[in-house]
Design a protein that fits this description.
By secondary structure, this protein is an alpha/beta fold. The protein is 40% helix and 16% strand. The chain has a 6-stranded mixed beta sheet, sandwiched between helices. Strands 1, 5, 6, 9 and 10 form a 5-stranded antiparallel beta sheet that branches. It has a two-stranded antiparallel sheet with strand order 12-13.
């Protein structure tokens, strides 16, 4: 995502490398933020300001006022001429509008200020008890409402590693299992493959090349009949990988994304050709690729964006979804910059993804079989997710019908 907030240093350095902001620019930035959230946001209903004060009805400025002292203080900091105030205001706003990942004040876009000698004062100003008291203390209750996925995500990854070992591809009995933590494939190995060819085993790309190599191994292993695609820790990425995977599983030579226009409500189909045999051509030979495997997908609350779209498309085609309700996220993303170079992105007003029935899937996909267990202390137990014997039995029961 770095390319989306690349800045012209001749324009932005004089703005970023100062202790203060121009009051007129601060007011312009705030007005522009209000316009964006009032007019361009695509899926009202997710995020604290949408839940508590109906931002989509009253607008950002009024929503901050209606939210009480936390909102009022956030607006005050957004309009401040102190650059540190502004930076922390965007952190506060990020908490209030966070919708799972598609709407975010992308703080990393200003991470360079910590390494810039001219901005060393910022690091000092934003650390210590005084900074906490000034910027964060009043947000404690609000921040507690925003689920922190990192601990849960790392816990699931550690559990999977403990139960299955290191790596991405695992087999047990008649079942193969491949973990994908995202849908963003490294382009360089793909460029090399299309230039040189050879075996997928020769290329170090774990998202898609590694998956295809594993599917080929499973297809050629007479003991393997089931293939589980593990998206339980998949935060999303690019739809091209998703469409390629769907095509390999289903045999469909055309990829299809279904949208709903937020502005007008009509359904829109977007079609793609898929090079299913990876020979660089779209032709009849693409129909020859076939996998004689029983496929299932494993999802959790951490399966977001494309990790949510995939199980929706997968189910529409009659395949088994296991795990727990996915994390949702189905709006297209609009990337924006403030006038002073602060990158952020929002769930876009333009389109939101749907299933084949035309239903918006932003709220997540309910699995066919629920696997997560909740203890008396309220903690989730994901051990059944990575029990290959259990998964094998569930898949065999389905496909035997």
């Amino acid at each position: 995502m770095d390319y989306m907030y690349m800045r012209d240093p001749e324009y932005f350095d004089p703005i970023l490398c100062r202790h203060t902001r121009d009051a007129e620019l601060a007011a312009f930035n705030y007005g522009e933020l209000c316009f964006v959230f009032d007019k361009l946001y695509g899926y009202p209903g997710r995020g604290i300001l949408y839940e508590d004060v109906a931002l989509e009805e009253v607008g950002l400025d009024q929503a901050l006022k209606d939210f009480g002292p936390v909102g009022t203080r956030t607006k005050e900091l957004l309009l401040s001429t102190d650059w540190a105030d502004y930076f922390m205001a965007m952190i506060r706003l990020n908490t209030l509008v966070e919708d799972g990942g598609h709407t975010s004040m992308y703080l990393a876009s200003h991470g360079d200020v910590y390494s810039n000698p001219a901005r060393a004062w910022l690091s000092a100003k934003l650390s210590g008890q005084n900074s906490y008291d000034k910027y964060i203390a009043d947000m404690a209750e609000v921040m507690a409402r925003v689920p922190s996925t990192l601990d849960n995500l790392m816990g699931m990854m550690d559990l999977r590693r403990e139960m299955l070992g290191d790596g991405h591809y695992f087999t047990k009995g008649d079942t193969a299992f491949y973990s994908m933590n995202g849908f963003v494939a490294d382009k360089e190995p793909w460029k090399e493959y299309y230039a040189k060819g050879g075996s997928f085993d020769d290329y170090d790309e774990t998202v898609f090349i590694g998956l295809i190599s594993s599917m080929n191994k499973a297809q050629n292993d007479p003991e393997i009949h089931n293939f589980v695609i593990d998206l339980s820790t998949n935060g999303g990425g690019s739809a091209d990988v998703l469409l390629g995977l769907i095509s390999l599983i289903t045999g469909e030579r055309e990829g299809l994304l279904k949208y709903q226009s937020v502005l007008q409500g009509q359904s829109i189909d977007q079609k793609f050709l898929i090079d299913r045999n990876f020979d660089g051509k779209f032709d009849e030979a693409d129909a020859d690729v076939h996998y004689d495997l029983n496929f299932a997908v494993l999802v959790s609350h951490e399966s977001y964006s494309c990790g949510n779209l995939f199980p929706s498309m997968f189910r529409d085609r009659g395949y088994l979804v296991l795990g727990e309700r996915s994390g949702g996220g189905a709006c297209t993303i609009l990337g924006l910059n403030t006038a002073d170079g602060f990158y952020y992105h929002i769930s876009s007003y333009q389109m939101r993804l749907t299933n084949d029935a035309g239903e918006v899937i932003d709220a997540g996909i309910t699995p066919d079989v629920e696997l997560v267990k909740t203890g008396a202390d309220g903690k989730k137990d994901y051990s059944d997710f990575y029990d290959l014997t259990l998964l094998s039995n569930l898949i065999n029961d389905l496909y035997a019908k």
